[in-house]
Amino acid sequence: MSVSLVVLAAGMASRYGSLKQIDKFGPAGESIIDYSIYDAIEAGFTKVVFIIRKEFAQEFKEIFEPRFGEKIKIEYAYQELEAFTAGFEIPAERNKPWGTAHAVLCSADVVKEPFAVINADDFYGKDAFRKAYNFLTGSASFNLWANICYELGNTLSDYGSVSRGICQADIKNNITSIIERVKVYRENGHIVFEENGQLEVLDSKTKASMNFWCFTPEVFNFSKELFQVFLSNHINEAKSEFFIPLVGDEFIKQRKGNVRAIITSAQWFGVTYKEDKPIVQHCINNLIGGKVYPAALWESVKF
Q1: 3-state secondary structure of 244
Q2: Within 10 A of 134 (CB to CB), how many other CB atoms are there?
Q3: What is the spatial distance between Cα 121 and Cα 63, in angstroms, rounded to a whole number?
Q4: Structural domains of the chain, with CATH
Q5: Which residues pair with 191 in a beta bridge?
């Protein structure tokens, strides 16, 4: 069965200070993307779709296609401000992408099969990709999607606030709500987020969406409708973003179907700030030392 992996790589990385999607973290110059694609191929994924900005296309092709272009089909989709905005006038001060759900929507022309979505700058681990593949090939349908969830306490940066999709689930592990919290951080031994000028506390074991989603193509029409509503309400807000958790939450609230919370035991780590890089490199080196990955990831690989 054909299953795709959609990689969100169109972000501007303003807090990181450079294009972290292609930064080098592994001992042979591997990016975090390399490890995700390696795990995806191993799990059974047959195609990867990079969602990028057009100005980065040549750089992406030159870096990644020689590494794994013969091992998995590669396609590209471009997140442009004008995409799906017909009938709306984009404010002149708007210069950042519309957000992760808009990025996924921009892949509609090249994704016709069940697919997973990940961030380019997050490391998700082998167990997460295996569980995503098993769900996509065995359970996913027009009314059943999924999110690979991690414990919130294992997903924070020591160097500043992060955005996290906070999930609540019922006894059947169907998510009942997903709320994107945009300023989550540790303070005085607690995990807190800011809302309306107030600090609220979150439990460290709270299920967190790290933007690892499992969808069927029905998500595109649903997202397109929601994006029109989003533009009607927020187009004049220069920093407003159309997040994937909003799509998942509306899918649940409108009773279109269920979103399954799939808990992974995999180790998560990622880069939001430049100071996170040595930590990520240390984690990758530990996995190499434990024989989880070869030191030179793509040399003599057999799948």
Answers
A1: helix
A2: 15
A3: 16
A4: 4-155+207-289 (3.90.550.10)
A5: 186, 202
